[in-house]
Amino acid sequence: MDLIWEGLRKALELLLALDPEVLRITFLSLKVSGIATLLSVVLGLGLAILVALNDFPGKRLVIALLNTGMGIPPVVVGLFVTVMLWRYGPLGFLGILYTPSAIILAQLVIATPIIAGLGLAALQHLQPGLRLQILSLGATRAQMVWLLLREARLPLLAAVMAGFGGVISEVGASIMVGGNIKGSTRVLTTATVMETSRGNFDVAFALSFILLALAFSVNALLTHLQQRSGHR
Amino acid sequence: MTRETLLQARNLQVHRGGVQVLEVPVLDLRAGEVLALMGPNGAGKSTLLLALAGLLPHSAGELRFRGTLLQSRGHREAFRRRMTMVFQDPLLLDATVAQNIALGLKLRGIAAAERNSRVRDWAKRLGLGELLDRSARHLSGGEAQRTALARAFVLHPEILFLDEPFSSVDTQTREGLLDDLGHILAETGTTAVIATHDQGEAARLAHRLAVMQEGRIVQLGGLREVINHPEHPFVATFVGMETLLKGQVVSSREGLISLRLRKDSGDREVVALGEAQPGRMVLVGVRPEHVALSLQIDNTSSARNVFLGAVTKVIPRGPFFKVELDCGFFLAAYVTAQSMSELGLEPGRAVVASFKATSVHLIRKEGLDPEL
């Protein structure tokens, strides 16, 4: 127990002292996972809309793949993205391995299926016939999509939260494609792993608490949005 | 009076999964009329409705609205802003009643001031005046369907499509909704197509009736005409002619025909209204409400068709009973609960069944399948 209290104390100390290294790590975590989540919302929701509103051969297979993708282990994503970005790999010319961009890319691959899968479920859960009803009221295709998204806003925000939660907390991919380079690609999770392996439990705890607080704040904000729109 | 044709369908076909589910060679919708599509579940009513509304792409044929071929996406989108549809489920958005009613107007970019006054107007007309600010989630089934109707009428649609609009509300609510819809359709002169499996609904709202079976229209005509003169055995049973009799015409004069029923019915003769050549095989139908039952032959009765028979089955049908008889042929009659007890009707009971010649409708004169 002492270790935990010591960690809490240390976390407060680091935060109150505005330790530049800790702040940098925290902001990088937030930035990388935030950008990855935003991009995943665009990609994942786009995919969910396409699959939900169209009938095509192999639709069930696509849905099954998306659902499988929701549970894909970050280390597997890390491995693939590393190989792709490797100097002689297909995307090696980008030269982004061991940069924050590489982490964003890996987290994008992790969060997109989560948001697409949950988003698709949210859209498919809408009342059958709602799409035709909206069209019959004179909606253009774009207006119809917008109304459907608005109608599914509660579960869609839950999908966004799940996506963000998935990437802010993952460590495997971030370490592999980012390399945990101090001042460049070190994020809260990779730093926690490192400090723990060094036996600096107090610092590791401190970083963990910051991570938890961060995840909580973002989700609290999204929950607020979700519940406000839910009750009127 | 010839009215303008609003919607014109020619050789309309819809395929689903490679199977043809709808084929309508000709269908014209005239301005101001209410057309009912009737048929059992799976007859293709909803499919035809969706195809006519341009919400379900047809695989062949053409659809014209006021003469314009609805072919391109642009044409269909423009058409969608001049018609609207009410479905079996109210399909309201998670918003207030007012916001729901305003939806179509908002999608058309109508200014807020006009929108609000039209919404209030129609909400009031459908008895929703007090509910405008209520969340659509907290409405009863009837209120929700009223909201859906207001949302449709507020658009002043040139054609209103209704897909079984009252089949998910209880009987009492349905009565009120039917009354209101009937009044509004009559007052506004809105052209409408309503799909229903309920003959009563069709009878109360429609001018013309199309009876559908297996993706085709088997009979289309004026309401009374189809109900009283079904041209097809399926239509006859669907509009409530429970007794169908096949026989050979033995004589025809002064608008009355006599026909001899099949041998296994004991060569009995039935007199019917109509004209047909002697020697022809014809099919006639009798509605159960036109058959009177008694215990003795009534000599003062004007009924031309009087048969002795025995009760085979008694089926309660709400306020009355359906009695099935064996008169050498099958005959169904409706009787009230009072008559039931007065006549002591129960299986095995011998009774006299009578019906007028004018109650026997000639269904088919030609092309009769001898094996029917």
CATH domain fold name of chain A: MetI-like fold
Q: Any guess at the CATH architecture of the largest domain in chain B?
A: 3-Layer(aba) Sandwich
User: Helices and strands of chain B: which structural class?
Assistant: alpha+beta
The CATH homology group name of the largest domain in chain B = P-loop containing nucleotide triphosphate hydrolases
Seen as an oligomer or otherwise, the chain set is heterodimer
Number of domains of chain B: 2
Largest interface: A-B, 17 and 24 residues
Structural description of this entry:
The complex is a heterodimer of chains A (232) and B (372). By secondary structure, chain A is mainly α. Helix content of chain A is 77%, strand content 0%. Chain A is built from eleven helices and no strands. Chain A is globular. With 372 residues, chain B is α+β, with helices and mostly antiparallel strands. Chain B is 26% helix and 36% strand. Chain B has helices spanning 45-52, 73-80, 97-107, 112-125, 141-153, 171-188, 199-205, 223-228, 233-238, 337-343; strands spanning 5-16, 19-30, 34-38, 60-65, 68-69, 83-86, 159-163, 191-196, 208-213, 216-222, 243-253, 256-261, 269-273, 281-286, 292-294, 305-317, 320-326, 330-336, 350-355, 360-364. The relative contact order of chain B is 0.11.
What is the topological layout?
The complex is a heterodimer of chains A (232) and B (372).
Chain A: H1 2-16, H2 20-53, H3 59-69, H4 74-85, H5 100-124, H6 130-136, H7 141-151, H8 153-168, H9 172-178, H10 188-197, H11 201-230
Helix pairs in contact in A: 1-11, 2-5, 2-8, 3-5, 4-5, 4-9, 5-8, 5-9, 6-7, 8-11, 10-11
Chain B: E1 5-16, E2 19-30, E3 34-38, H1 45-52, E4 60-65, E5 68-69, H2 73-80, E6 83-86, H3 97-107, H4 112-125, H5 141-153, E7 159-163, H6 171-188, E8 191-196, H7 199-205, E9 208-213, E10 216-222, H8 223-228, H9 233-238, E11 243-253, E12 256-261, E13 269-273, E14 281-286, E15 292-294, E16 305-317, E17 320-326, E18 330-336, H10 337-343, E19 350-355, E20 360-364
Parallel strand pairs in B: 3-8, 3-9, 6-7, 7-8
Antiparallel strand pairs in B: 1-2, 1-4, 4-5, 9-10, 11-12, 11-14, 12-13, 14-20, 15-19, 16-17, 16-19, 17-18
